[in-house]
Amino acid sequence: MVVELSGLKEWSEMVIFVAAEVTRLIQCFPPTFDSGQGKHGKRIFHLHMSENTGSSKERHRKFIEQVLETGEVWGLQSVDGWCVSGDEGKESMPFWSDRAGAAACAKEEWSGFEPTSIPLEEFVENWLPGMAEDGVVVGTNWNADLGGVESKPLELKQELEKEE
User: Three-class SS of residue 60?
Assistant: First the structure.
């Protein structure tokens, strides 16, 4: 990871900035740990962080579990509307189970978007049927590389209702 630190005037600003970046990365890409024996017999721990932590299917499963638990879904919204990926006729609308996941994708061409919550009931009853009518598929818990599961809206609606 390369962090641009120009414009930071004091060490305290730099420390706060770096801590915020590390926190964001850990929220988006949960680390895994392992341990071993280091030199001189000391126990050492290794922190592994990967943007590919968890498969798309695992992240989709987490989406289902977490939105049912919290009662909210997160999307990216700008002054011009909601974030959509793809070309007309093959559009995907991504959603996340938490604010951190949505925020991780609010970069580059989506940097003007802000994480915004949607009540789960409204999402299931209004958004998913509307997306089905519009021929838009749903992306769930995409990673920062915008990779993840895409589902037909009514199939996701059935999956959420079945798990309730």
Answer: helix
What is the homologous superfamily of the domain 56-163 according to CATH? Uncharacterised protein PF11572, DUF3234 (3.40.1350.90)
Residue pair 85/94 in contact (Cβ under 8 Å)? The answer is: yes
Specify whether the CB–CB gap between 75 and 92 falls below 8 A. Answer: no
Which of the 8 DSSP states describes residue 127?
I
113 CB neighbour count, 10 Å cutoff: 21
- Tokens, residue 108: 């580059």
pLDDT of residue 19: 65
Per DSSP bridges, beta strands 137-140 and 149-151 are antiparallel
Given a contact cutoff of 8 angstroms between Cβ atoms, the answer to whether 119 and 72 are in contact is yes
Tens of pLDDT, residue by residue over 22-55, are 665 555 555 544 445 555 555 554 444 444 446 8
Residue range 91-101, pLDDT digits in tens: 999 999 999 99
Reference 93, options 144, 150, 133, 51; nearest CA is 150
Task: Report pTM.
Answer: 0.67
